[in-house]
Amino acid sequence: MGTSFATQLLSTDVEPEEKMWRGVLVNALEDAGSKSQDRKPSIYKCDAHAWIMSNVTDFYTVCYYSGFEPEHVKERYKMAIMKGDIQFSPKNFAWKKYATQFNKYRNCKEVESKKYHRKHLTHLRVAVDLCTTAFISNLVTSI
After folding, report:
1. Across residues 16-37, what is the average pLDDT?
2. Residue 109 · residue 75 · CB < 8 Å
3. How many CA atoms lie within 13 A of 80 on its CB side?
4. What does R_g of the chain's alpha carbons equal in angstroms?
5. Which whole-number Å values give the CA distances from 37 to 18, 32, 119, 122, 130, in the listed order?
6. At what angle do helices 111-130 and 90-107 cross, to 10 degrees?
7. 140: pLDDT strictly greater than 60
8. Taking residues 116-138, what's their average pLDDT?
9. Contact in structure between 50 and 142 (CB atoms under 8 Å)
10. pLDDT tens digits, residue range 51-61?
11. What's the CA gap between 121 and 117, in Å, rounded?
12. How far is residue 4's CA from residue 40's CA, in Å, rounded to a whole number?
């Protein structure tokens, strides 16, 4: 996301609590910047992206506690996407969709509903296997 932003994030002259919150922010940014096509990194990547782009209170809280303006972090993140530093592939999204469906299946109690979700999972797994791993840039800044 740029050397000046990284320098600010890694600054050593901040309080320990602020460093900890910066670590949370850095972890999310690293997850979003992952190039992995595997299941867990793809899920973490999509979750981190959704968290950064959302208007949830905890994102704003983490930014403030880490000494950053949330809108500035979002703008820098969007710029990184537009520059192609952060990219997503259809396989990343397919894994996230599969994980969401798997959670529905796992939490389902009714037998018929569980069968439906299991069948849907099978289709989604095939879709993951058939997905391209080509990266797409600047497509997801509006989520």
Report:
1. 94
2. no
3. 23
4. 18
5. 32, 12, 24, 19, 13
6. 170
7. no
8. 87
9. no
10. 999 999 999 99
11. 6
12. 30
Place of tokens 């930014």: 63
Residues 107 and 58: their CA atoms lie apart, in Å, by 25
Of residues 133 and 21, which shows the higher confidence score? 21
Token pair belonging to 2: 């740029």
Lowest mean pLDDT among 11-15, 53-57, 119-123: 11-15
In angstroms, the CA 102 to CA 8 distance is 39
CB neighbours of 96 closer than 8 A, spacing ≥ 6? 42, 43, 46, 47
List the structure tokens of 73: 């972090």
How do the domains of the chain map onto residue ranges? 3-130
pTM over 0.85: no
Q: What element of type H or E holds 45?
A: helix 39-53
- The answer to whether 52 and 33 are in contact (CB under 8 A) is no
- Is 73 in contact with 25 (CB distance < 8 Å)? yes
Q: pLDDT tens digit string along 92-102?
A: 999 999 999 99
pLDDT for residue 5? 53
* DSSP 8-state assignment for residue 142: T
